[in-house]
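Lab meeting minutes (informal)
Scribe: AK
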Amino acid sequence: MPDEDEQSWGRYLGFGIEMAVGVAVGAFVGQWLDKRFNWAPWGVMVGVLVGLFAGMYPLIRAGLKANKD
């Protein structure tokens, strides 16, 4: 049975992956919007920021939950 350190490691790796996926999806959607509506570079910049905030949301929730406990 894995100990607490191994479980924490996997959880924090998941936060990093969620953040990276959020930023990547935001960048791809922003790039598509730039090409579609000729908004360059604003679509990518806004998409990356939205993806970053979406990726940080689970991390912030987990931090608040841990602070409560």
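Next up, CB showed the second protein from the same session:
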Amino acid sequence: MAPDDRSGHWLWRLDAPGWLSAARSELAAGRALAEQRRVAVTHARRAAGMAVNAVLVALAVEPVDELRWGRSYLDHLRALGGADEARRHPLSATVQAAAARLLTIAVAPSAALVQLTRGPHGAADLALDLATTIVDECATLVATRAR
């Protein structure tokens, strides 16, 4: 896509700091609603995806395929969770593992299983912690690229 065509494109709605700010807002909203598992896990996944958007924008100074990790936040997590080193570059194996694990957390608890967790909101807290790992690494990468 030519730089002049970016104004209406989904990725270019925000710059990298804007995507990171949106990701952090999603994390805060998820933490505030941790007692609502479905909502908190969704906020966590959205936060992670928004942070990945920040990386895509930061990489835009190089030839970049804006769809390399998909378009939606779930596409991003699926692509990164199953990516080999070359496909996830410049993100680390830590992000890959966090993305893969974040996808395994069900948005609703199973009635058939007894959940052994860190507390009453363990699944939501874990999802938010995993998303924070992704957001933090993406923020570090964006800051490094801005230098």
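CB comment: Residues 3-146 form a domain with the Four Helix Bundle (Hemerythrin (Met), subunit A) fold (CATH 1.20.120).
No objections, moving on.
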